[in-house]
Design goal:
The chain has 165 residues and is mainly alpha-helical. It is built from six helices and three strands. It has a three-stranded antiparallel β-sheet. It starts with 27 loop residues before the first helix and ends with a helix. Keywords: DNA-binding, Transcription, Transcription regulation.
Amino acid sequence: MREQPTEPTEPTGSTGSTEQVTPTGAGPVSHAIFRVARLHRALAGRLLRETGLHTGQELILMALWDHGPQRQVDLVAAVETDAPTMARSIARLEKSGLVRRSASPDDRRAVIVEATEASLALRAKVVDAWAELERLTTTGLDPARQAEILANLGLLESVLTEAGH
């Protein structure tokens, strides 16, 4: 028998959270993950707005700032996205003057992507946006609770990675 959705309740527990109505047929854990991911991405987008970057583009720049020029295919793996999305993001970043693409000297089929000097002007703002995102995300969570959440998210990531293979 399928579990019926519940009505919203008053805040409960030490976090003050409110139980959400789960659409018929939607699993409550999957629905919660969807809601949290959507809210987190929207908040990241708002915090990044002043940089002119769209969510996801900062991850590419952060990888390039931290690890230097990389093959486009390696950036796909580092940022955990797909090749078409990466190609579009890099094209936009290149058009904005934030990255430069060139052919690999070792493999003419490979494209090397590197951050430009112009991108470095955004680095502090991106780092600050991510620090604020982390602060807002973890407000009210003590270090033990944060560690517990990280462990549970790691477990979910493992389960979903295995399910995808």
